[in-house]
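Comment thread on ticket #2218

A.B. wrote:
> Attaching the input chain for the structure job we discussed in standup.
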Amino acid sequence: MKHVIFIALLLSKVTFSQELTLQQANHLATLPIKCLQQEYPNKLGQMLIDSTEIKSPRELHPSFYGCFDWHSSVHGHWSLVYLLKHFPELDKRDEIISNLKVNLSKENIQKEVDYLSKNHEKSFERTYGWAWVLKLQLELETFDAPFAKEIAVNLKPLSDLVVQRYTEFLPKLLYPIRMGMHPNTAFGLTLAWDYAVFSKNTDFQKVIHDNAVRLFSADADCPFNWEPSGTDFLSPCFEEMAIMQRVLPSTDFLKWLKKFAPQLFKKQFDWAPAKVSDRTDGHLVHLDGLNFSRAWNLYHLIRQYPKQFQHLKALADKHMAFSLPSVVDGNYEGEHWLATFALHAFEEMGRQ
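C.D. wrote:
> Ran it. Output below, let me know if you need it in another format.
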């Protein structure tokens, strides 16, 4: 019954408001709270050099061992920081802060740095997990609460390593990865760009800009009819649009977009949300994430170019409303990460 009530609240607010309410925030917070320090089930993306590296998830990743896998743990932490920042009256605030301070201690983060510094783990979480580390860093550094400032300092060595990893890797990437899952190049660049701009790291901005233009500027007629692939949780077309929207001047971007996605300029454009046949299947449930990915990129596009794209608002809302119920359906396969995707979509919706 509580799930039914929550779904009704979410759907009514998505129709009439661009603000996430405290009641909604409290419900969404319960999902990362539940898994932040839940070690099992766990999927390790580990390469073993020898038997000495066989350890428990918590031993290997004392900061990010919960929420099924490393990247989901990272963005679960982001979700809670985001909610604490925007909702000072959030339920369980003290408990959340305490858990964040334990997980993101200086000592624990150093162990994460040590892990990612191994020669055979240079591709670990490339680039999806990297991107969420930088988004978490940005969220902490823009939060004036004392605990957030402390944790931001703790996390910075890991974020610095991620920036170094991007800088080393991007020039070597001769062809972009366009799949709608973790390695998607465009999504990884988008979150990294937002952090590079915030941190005023002009060298990092140049690396991202130059490689995004190199990889994507010649693209045209993105095959919308190829979406979704069976287990996408990111929209390949829209994520590419998102990074080019960030790195190109307005005139250049609109010119590029008319070649890349001309259908978006049509007032009658429509696109059906992706359907999920079995939400207990950890891969098939990815498609709910795809709907949120489309929504957050549409909201971002509309905000910057309302004259050209306000007609897409209803489409963004439709994708949000379609998958919001699955955030609280009781299946861990989706719950351990979908709250983050919903919040990111709410974040972009609320900025309009």
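A.B. wrote:
> Thanks. Noting for the ticket: Residues 122 and 179 are 21 Å apart (CA to CA).
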